[in-house]
Amino acid sequence: MLNSQVLIRETDFSRLAHTWEQLAEQMKEQGDSKTPAKLLQLAEKTKKAELNIAFCGHFSAGKSTMINTLLGVNLLPSNPIPTSANVVKIRGGEKAARVYTNASGVITFDPDTEMEKLKQFAVDGDTVESVEVSYPGTFLDEYSSLLDTPGIDSTDAAHKIATESALHLADVVIYMMDYNHVQAEENFNFTKTLKDRGKPVYLVVNMIDKHLDFELDFESYKESVEEAFATWNIKPDGIYYTSLAEPDHLENQYEELRSMLGQLITDREELVAKSVRSAADHLIEEHIQEVKASQAGKRQELENKLGSIEVDGLDSSDAQAVATNLQDAEAQAKTLESRTIEARKQMEKDLGVLLDNARLTYYSTNEAAESYLESRKPGFKLGFLFAGKKTEEEKARREEVLLTEFREKVAGNLDFHFRELMGKQLQVYDIRDEEYHARVHATKIEITPEFLAKHIKDGAQSREYVMNYCNDISAGIKLEYRRVGLGFIEQVTALLEQQVGAEGAAQHERLAALRELADVHKKLSELAAGEEAAKQRLQAIMREGDKES
């Protein structure tokens, strides 16, 4: 038992009921038309701290007979057929029988004289919401009730719905089974569902008078029952073996069952305080399922769209894989988009480095240039006899010496490396074009006497003047190589743009598909996030209600 301080906190039922009402209101705002009604039922039950003991099981397991026997009065029909599409609630209190209908409101009967009429209403699951009987003189009081639920093995869907609709109001479940049908699969499925929902579940194996000891001793039979449920990982809160046909049966535990029910009623407030919280938690889960169901069409439409978009080598339903592939594809698209620009920059940079590092004038070049420049000064003359002819011959000789010297340095230090650099550009970008290579190898940049002459400047002959001249002819020939090199770079760029265009078309198609997939996954994620947010809001209301209690 809980100590008094904890019990006061746990049994502040009015506050708890208010919390359930808040939850119901929140659920209505979220468009749920089913779960709020259950929460409001739970709130009414909570206000009264009412204990509901639900009897479930096969319709032929003797539930109604067991309830009548426990009550000491025949309030329920005991025919071995499904007797009600509704849950019938029996509690202590002033004698009355009430049928809550959809169309006619509450109809009241005398339970002693008009129960046959009540039975007619009880089987009408379409118009009757619930049936309630109160009767004095039983072990029940006005705060304790027994719920007789439809048989879980009924083929009538209305019976199953009625049973499930009452479980949120059940604080304890007595699950009854016919001796011969204990190991039916629906027993395991249903009791596992109950335990998974946190319900206290007591098993009752009824009609043990059918047992024949010569086939199997009763202890072994009990062991087989326990092992069967353990195999399904079901741990009942207790198992009782009963016979109403043979009250004096040696293994009959009817009295123990009745005593246990009395103890449950004694522990009512503690049981209800725990049960209603568990029921509210489960109704929140039910609500989230309703929210999901309301969005099922939209979710299915999005999932169908996922299946209709195909991307090579990718599972379109894998959101993480889609996101990773999209990130990679966008990076590749960006790289592809800038490839031509970056390639041009790199080629221009490589050409600049080559030209900057090419040394074209040496000491021998300076000497040849000094001699050449001297021959180009006004008044330069050689000898007296035949001076004119000798002078022209000397000027030609000095010019040829400088041409040969400079051409040699350009050929060895620039022209070879220039052709190599320009020739390998296609290979760098994985492009094949034999005509381009032919043009590179056919390139010839002439160093002519006119080239040498046009760089001569007026000025007094000096070592500085000679050095400046050498720098000028070096810069001039490099400028020509730069012009030709930029022409080749333009050709490579044009070829690269064609390549990028072809790749870009395929890349664009893949990127568009990935973006569409990512958008679908985003919308699916938003649906899930909305459902989770709804759940969090409801749980926050629950936590706040617990703080106040």
Can you walk through the features of this model?
- With 549 residues, this protein is an alpha/beta fold.
- The chain folds into 2 domains: 47-301, Rossmann fold, CATH 3.40.50; 319-535, no CATH class.
- 62% of the residues lie in helices and 9% in strands.
- It has 17 helices and 9 strands.
- A 9-stranded mixed β-sheet has the order 4-3-5-2-6-1-7-8-9, sandwiched between helices.
- It is rod-shaped and about 165 Å long.
- It starts with a helix and ends with a helix.
Descriptive terms for the model:
GTP-binding; P-loop_NTPase; 9-stranded mixed β-sheet; Dynamin_N; 549 residues; coiled coil; Rossmann fold
Reported by name, the CATH topology of the largest domain is: Rossmann fold
The N- to C-terminal Cα distance equals 18 Å
What is the general shape?
rod-shaped
CATH superfamily of the largest domain: P-loop containing nucleotide triphosphate hydrolases
The percentage of residues in β strands lies in 5-15%
| Biggest β-sheet strands, sense, barrel | 9 strands, mixed
Helix content: 55-70%
User: Structural class given helices, strands, pairing?
Assistant: alpha/beta
Q: Count of helical segments?
A: 17
Number of extended strands: 9
What order do the helices and strands follow? HHHEHEEEHEEHEHEHEHHHHHHHHH
Q: How many domains, in number, for the residues?
A: 2
User: Which stretches of 5+ consecutive residues score pLDDT under 50?
Assistant: 1-10, 80-84, 155-159
Strand order of the largest sheet: 4-3-5-2-6-1-7-8-9
Q: What is the averaged pLDDT score?
A: 85
CATH architecture of the largest domain: 3-Layer(aba) Sandwich
- The CATH class designation of the largest domain is Alpha Beta
